[in-house]
Design a protein that fits this description.
single chain, mainly alpha, 0% strand, elongated
Length: 75
Amino acid sequence: MVEWDVEWAEERASETMRYLAEHYPECSGAPELHAYQEAAHEAAVAGEREAYLEALREYMRCGRFVAMRIRKRAA
């Protein structure tokens, strides 16, 4: 098993948060995101890079979906 690189994981998570904050700030703190945060955490604890990246991708997709739903309601 490859040793978990904490700095790499922090960079990926920071990139994800920064992207959502810049493009979809409406999703900040949305409860729908919690499952993906948990999945990323579980993957990190297990040292599973691909699962971690997939959880972050799903987190971004969900954030975009939540923001678009909010924007649509506001229009």
